[in-house]
Each structure stands twice: as structure tokens, then as C-alpha cells.
Amino acid sequence: MFYKGKNSIQMNHFFKVITLVCLLFSSLLTFGNPPNDDKFVVVLDAGHGGKDPGKVSHGYNEKDIALKIVLAIGKELEKDPKIKVVYTRKTDVFVELVERGRIANKANANLFVSVHCNAHTSSASGTETYVLGLHGNKKNFEVAKAENEVIFLEDNYETNYAGFDINAPEATINITIGQEENLSQSIEIAKMIQDKFTNTLKRKNRGVKQAAFVVLHQTIMPSVLIETGFITNTEERNFLKSTSGQSKISHAIVEAIYGYKTIIDENTGNVLISPHVPVTPVVATPEETLNTSNNAIIFKVQIASSSRDLPLKPENFNGLKTISQEKAGTIYRYFYGATNSYDRAKVLLKEAKKSSYNDAYIVAFRNGTKISVTEAIKSASN
Ligand SMILES: [Zn+2]
Fold it and tell me: 276: pLDDT confidence band, cut at 50, 70 and 90?
């Protein structure tokens, strides 16, 4: 029909339709992965399962306790339409560590939370949350080794985890730059989880730690592995196996996830640092005097985190001056600038981004302690 006669309008129309179809097709290709409708995607990973019971003590299996806690976390989070929950397992099945990572990566997750229980002598107690890293010490190595041993139950572990010697205390894992960037976020959520366990549940705090967990090595988003307590300790086992204990633990984790999500929301734009809101140009004022008295709010721009202790010279930071550093665990965080003004902080953020720190974000401190930017703005304007 289109070729009948000399109607160039019809021909034009034909090409328009073809172009449209091509455009549609290419956009389908581009957006092959659903963008999750701007939801905050949490992957919940119940440790072990199926033929791998995890630790066993007095007839209780780690795999069962971990699953119950995970399902309770998921049940609470699923009530929130802004959150999407993805599980690596919802039943008593065996899932390879590499597959757990694949599930999280495929889901474009914002956060990966793996739930486990510890085991040692009957006197050992307390909770600890791990982020990926080299084993800080022998104790961390022992915990990671025990959790990593599950790979020997997998069929293709030699190929799946090539080069990862789980028996080597000085694990030679290759932590990618992306994973290193995720570390500061992982430490952030790990700290929040430990704080909730300690302050709200009054559990003994063994702290935020780093070790080479195979499962954390598979994911490309901020990821933590929680040891919720020792099933070898009578008091902790009784707590972990009880419905009320599981519900308290899961609720504490949910609250920590919300605390973390708030910080992420503040820094990813829609709320406070929207790129559409014009930033008032502020001329750099090096003579700006920083109020460091008690309760003064100080904003900085976090530009990077690294396991390396870099000298604070401009040449190490794409030419940026006034860099400061903070050590958290074995990770160094690097900040650009320091100001009492949120408006000025937004300008500093722009400067950092111009210097290729595209993932930089604003952080706030009071009395040297990190607080949420929302809280800081409220306090600063009071
Ligand atoms: Zn485990």
C-alpha cells in the first residue's frame, strides 16, 4: 500500500513507523533489566540450606534459624511499597554461594544482607557484622573459613571460585574497585545493625569486621554478613531459637535497613540534592572560618574510600585540596572540604563531581560523630 502512487507523505509515514519500531526495539534492549520502578531493592540471604545445615548445636540448625529471621525481615519490609524484597531462598534448599551473588546482581539490588549464626566454645557470645575485606586477624579468618567451607558441597567450586583459597589466612581475593567503593556503604549499614543489636537489644557487641567471605565477594552492591549470635552458647541459642528472639533480631535489622535507606535517599538526589534545584553560586572562600565548637554541624563531601592510607596531597585526589581522612575499621574514608553551611557543601559536592568523583556525596558530623544530613540541616537551621 505504501508504494502505490507517488505519495511521498505515505513513504514518509512508512519510514517514521520503521524508525519508531527500531527505537522501541533498541530501548527494549537497553532496558532489558527492569529499573525496579525506583524501588529500594534489598536481597535477603538466609545462610546455608538443604544439604548444608550450617552450624549445628543441641539439635538446632543454623540454616533454620537464619531462614526464620530472613522471612521475618522480609515480611516487615514487604509492607513498604517503596521497597522490593528478593530472597536467595525462601525454603530449606541448597543454593550455591555463586548463585546467591547472581540473584543479587541480576536484581540490581541496593543492598545485600546475609544472615547467619556463629558457633565456637560455649562461652563465646555476641553479635558481629562483616563486610568484605582481607581477614583482619585469625579470629575473623576462622569465621569466614567456616562460612566459606560450604563451597566444597558445590559441584563446580574449582571453576566458580578459581583463585580463591579459603584455607589461606592471607586470602588473596581480588577486590574490584567497585567493591572497594561499596565498602564505605557496607560499613555504614554494618555499624547501624550492630548499634541496633547493642543499644536496643542489649546484645554483646563484637563489632563490625572485615573478612574474605566468598558470598560477599560475589556481589557488586553494598553487602553485609550478620552473625546474629552463637548457637553454641545456651543463652544465645535459647534467644535465637525462640520466636520472640527471632522477631527482635529481625526487627533490629529492619530498623537498620531503614536508617541506611534514609542516608542513601538523602544522597541520591530526589529529596535534598536534586540536580534540578539550581545551586546558588558561592565563590570559594578559603578564609572561611570553620566553627568547630561543641555541637557545631560540619558538612564534608565524601569522595572515596580505600584500604590504602594515601598521603593527603592534591595529586592523589584529582587536584582537590583540603582533603581530610577518617579511619573506619581497616578502611580509610576521604573527604573534600569542611563547612558549617549546607549550601556551601552543595557547591563542594559540585566541585568534587567536576573532579571526576561522580559518586561523591555530602556527609555531616556533630562532635566528630556522623549524623544524617536531614538531622544536620535541621540542627544547622535552628
Ligand atoms: Zn553460616
Answer: very low
